[in-house]
Amino acid sequence: MSSIVLTRSVSPSISAEKTLSIAARLWFVVAVAGQWMFAWYIAALYGGSALRGDWTAWHDRIAHGHGPAALGNAAMAIHLFLAVVILIGGPLQLIPQLRRRTPSFHRWNGRVYVVALFIATIAALYMVWIRGTAGDFPQHVGVSLDAVLIMIFAVLAVRHAIARDFQTHRRWTLRLFMAVNGVWFFRVGMMLWLVINRGPAGFNPKTFTGPS
To answer: How far apart are CA 102 and CA 107, in angstroms?
Structure first.
């Protein structure tokens, strides 16, 4: 008796969708790991030096890290503290299993996340345009546009959550997540550039303007 082997063809669209899903999950895992490492770095370096009363670490790692103006120092400290809250809490909002199993935590973490975003964004705008920071005018404009997008996306995400349009809410939340992490993406790209060139190349490492 002859046997007939049946083969099942896999639809190219299904295969592509599965590949895209795996790539998205892998990207998310890597991104979250990187962001939580960055949060630990901020807490350990800036928080640790602040507790010790050693402000030289702020000067060594960030432009205008600590100065004579109390308001400017407060804005910097608030921005750094809330950056840790945002980096840790933000990715948790995008995990479906956590959202389904602990909806109450998802709601409260989302509220904390949005409030922290607004305060940190306002503090950043103050530092860019009033207190002073590294970079030139085009960079300040770019940072300010990102800040505006963050606030708009946050409002839209909350608005659709209140309306219980959760599909649209998730889309705006993802857009918010990407806009919020603009600084993190910049740092990843900058570190890659430094590794490739074995040091600063094409810009002034003190003022972050270029070409050097």
So the answer is: 9
Phi-psi region of 208 (alpha: psi -120 to 50; beta: other; left: phi over 0): left
Three-state DSSP at 137 gives helix
- Pick left, alpha or beta for residue 9 (phi over 0 → left; psi -120 to 50 → alpha; otherwise beta): beta
Contact 137, 207 (CB under 8 A): no
Binned at pLDDT 50, 70 and 90, residue 209 comes out as confident
- Give me the mean pLDDT over the 104-122 stretch: 96
User: Other C-beta atoms within 10 Å of 143: how many?
Assistant: 21
Query: Which position has the higher pLDDT, 179 or 205?
Result: 179
The region, left, alpha or beta by phi > 0 then psi within -120 to 50, assigned to residue 202 is left
**Longest pairwise C-alpha distance within the chain:** 92
Distance between CA atoms of residues 34 and 18, nearest Å: 24
Q: Are 133 and 212 in contact (CB under 8 A)?
A: no
In 3D space, the residue among 128, 34, 32 whose CA is nearest the CA of residue 79 turns out to be 128
Concatenating the DSSP letter of every residue in 80-111 gives HHHHHHHHHHHHHTT-HHHHHH-HHHHHHHHH
pTM summary value:
0.82
